[in-house]
Amino acid sequence: GNTVETLLYVNIRGYKVERLKPIYAAKKLGYKITLLADKDPGLDKGLIDDLIIVDTYDIEASVQASIEYAKNHSVAGVLTWADKDVELVARIGEELGLRTINRESAKKARNKYLMRDALSQIEGLCPKYRHVLSFSDLQQAVKEVGIPGIFKPVGGAGSKGIFKIDENTNVEETYRLMLETTSPEEDKTFSYYPNEYIYEEYLEGPEVSIDGVVQDHIVYMTGVADNLVSEDYSLDYMEIFPSEKDDETIKEIKRSTKTAVKELGFNDCSFHLEGRVTKEGFKTVRSCCSSCWRIYCFSCD
Q1: Same domain, yes or no: 115 and 223
Q2: Same domain, 93 and 237
Q3: Among candidate residues 71, 69, 80, 63, the one with its CA nearest the CA of residue 13
Q4: First and final CA of the chain: distance in angstroms?
Q5: Widest distance between CA atoms in the chain
Q6: CB of 13 within 8 A of CB of 35?
Q7: DSSP 183
Q8: Is residue 121 part of a domain?
């Protein structure tokens, strides 16, 4: 009969409670599941139909492996759950002719400075920020943006390498620690944008998160949640869904999110935005000022 369509997963989430549900759902819909990953994750037999082992930090090798696989299989969609693989999924989608987020928008999703540059065109949506490529850049950024501020890598994930700078901070020591923390030799996640950082204005206000999907350039939002975040390390420890914010605030958050999504050119993907509700309105930053557009890149014909 008909060829079973395949969903190509690029790696999986590290948390068991998160990584299996999407696979179960896809299986119920009748899809064949293929996993492109650095190593065998050791999932229960029957969940993964085909396993392609490749160094997913090697973009070209991963793309080529996907192309070879697609020659003999009907790949209907490609998706990822990890920040680091967003640009890889865009490349694979382009090569296989699938409807995924485009490469330019994927780069903006991953590079916080490029994202800020794009969103700065929208008045009031971004905090003040400066690109940092050297210690002298950081010194100048602190002078121009002011303190307190947030110093972070442009291509980080999981709140790693987030430093708050205030009047008591030794800026030179913080820069040295940043270089150590984000060394590609220690963590390959930082190999995409090595030694590239951003310094941003620190904003006060409660954190919220918004999830949604963009298809055919129409933005659908599934809801807004209140995020409870630790003060010291900016780690999410609880979410309240739906948000307890008043109706007018929710409308502003959704309106700003829709504007931002369109400005970044997102399409044929899902998204997760974390921002803060400040006295001046909603701004696209986390409590640690780490912009978090997590693009899952799920797309099927």
Answers
A1: yes
A2: no
A3: 80
A4: 20
A5: 70
A6: no
A7: -
A8: yes
pTM: 0.86
Q: How many helices (H) and strands (E) does the chain have?
A: 9, 13
| CB neighbour burial string for 229-267, b if at least 16 within 10 angstroms, e if fewer | beeeebebeeeeeebebeeebbeebbebbbebbebbbbb
Mean pLDDT by 10 residues, the chain (301 residues): 82 75 88 94 85 96 97 93 89 94 92 92 88 97 95 84 91 96 91 94 87 92 86 70 92 92 91 84 47 34 32
Inside any domain, residue 167: yes
Number of other CB atoms surrounding residue 171 within 10 Å: 16
Q: Within a domain: residue 1?
A: no
| Both structure tokens of 52 | 């392609």
Nearest of 264, 256, 252, 268 to residue 217 by alpha carbon: 268
If you search the block for the tokens 């943006």, which residue do you land on? 145
- Whether 149 is in a domain gets the answer yes
Q: Which of 174, 201, 228 is the last residue of a domain?
A: 201
Joined together, the tokens standing for residue 40 give 């065998």
| Whether residue 228 sits in one domain with residue 253 | yes
What are the tokens at 271? 């998204």
How many structural domains is the chain composed of? 3
Backbone torsions φ then ψ of 138, nearest 5 degrees: -65, -45
**Gap between the Cα atoms of 35 and 126, Å rounded:** 37
- Same domain, residue pair 11 and 137: no
Query: What pLDDT is stored for residue 301 in this prediction?
Result: 32
Strand order in the sheet with 163-165: 129-132, 197-201, 149-153, 163-165
Nearest to 231 by CA among 208, 207, 253: 207
Q: How much is the pLDDT for 299?
A: 35
Give the tokens for residue 93.
Answer: 């989608």
Domain of 154, in residue numbers: 128-201
Give the CATH number for residue 138.
3.30.1490.20
The Cα 99–Cα 93 span in angstroms is 7
**What is the torsion angle, in degrees rounded to the nearest 10, for the CA atoms of residue 140, residue 143, residue 145 and residue 151?**
60
